[in-house]
Design a protein that fits this description.
344 residues; 7-stranded mixed beta sheet; 10 helices; metal ion binding; 2 domains; 17% strand; Alpha-Beta Plaits; Ribosomal_Su5_D2-typ_SF; Ribosomal Protein S5, domain 2; alpha+beta; single chain; transferase
Amino acid sequence: MALVAQAKQLFLDAFGHPPTLVVSAPGRVNLIGEHTDYNEGFVLPLCIERCTLIAARKTAGSKCKVTSSSEGAGRVFDFVGDASLQKAADWTNYMRGVVFQYLPDLPGGCAGFEAAVVTTVPLGGGLSSSASLEVATATMLEALYELRVEPLVKALRCQKCEHDFCATPCGIMDQFISACGKAGHALLIDCRKPYPTEHVPLDDEGLQIVIANSNVKHSLSGSEYPDRVRQCKEACAAMRSSGHPGVRFLRDATLEQLASVKALDAVVARRATHGISEDQRTLQAREALKARDYARVGQLMLESHRSLRDDYEVSTPELDALVGIAMAVDGVYGSRVNGGGFGG
C-alpha cells in the first residue's frame, strides 16, 4: 500500500489533483530459457513482487502527460495521443508505443490522460522493467477507457511497442509473463504461434529464489541484441542451405544439423549452439520442476550460464563472480545470468 500511496502523491504533486485509478504490472525473472524467445523457442519465467505502478486520470482531448519517480527528476513529459504520435529520445517511448498500439480501440482514435509512474523494478537490471512499464501502460488504458483485451493480445501489443518505438527486436517472453503470470507458478511459454503455455507449480515453501544485482546497468539499444538476432537467422539460413529445409528458427534445429554445416562462421555457430541447447535445457527443467527435482533444475541453470557466457557471450565478470559466490553457499542448487545480459 505504501507504493500505491507514493504513486498517488507523485500524481498529486505533478498535476494538482488526485488520480482516478492506480494499476500495476510485475517484473519478471526467467528461471531458464534465455535468448530463445525470438528463435521461437521455449522460456520458463515467473513474476516477481517488484512491479510498476501507474496512477492515472483520463483527460479530454489527445494530450498525454506523464511523470516518473525514476526518470526526469519529477519533470512532466507530454506527447500527443493520436495517429501523429512519434518516437522520442527518452523513456516515454515505452508508453508512447503502447498508446499507439491502442489507438484503434479508443474513441476517436485518440488518448488523453495524466499519469505518474513509480517502479520497484531495477532499471536495466535484467528484470524487465521495460515490459513492466509497457504492460502497466496497457492496463491503464484498458481501465481508463473500459476496454476488454485478452492478455495475449495485450502482450503482443506491448512487444510491438518495443520493436517499433524502442528499437529492440525482443521476443514475446517479457511482455507475456507480465500480462499472463500466475502466483506460485512459473510459466512455460512456447514462443511459436499460437503461443501455448503451461503453468508449472513453483510453490514449495522450502524453496527460495534469490535475485542478486551486479549493479552493472545494461542497455540493449545498441548493436549487441540485434547482432545476436541476426546471427541466429544466419545459422538457420546456413542449415537450410545444407539440406535442412525445415529449420526456420533455431527451435527447429538439432545440434547434429548445425554440425553438418560446412564453413559456418565460428561466432555464428556458437550463437546457434546456445539457442538449440537452451531449448533442450528449458524443457528438461520443466519436467524436473514438476518432479520437484531441484538439484537437476540447478544443474541445468549452471549449464545455461556457461552457455550464455561462452557461446552467447552476454555475461560479464561481475555476473560470473556472483554465480561463483552463490554456488559456494551451502544449499544453493543453481545460479545463472538472467535477462538479456551485459549486466543486471
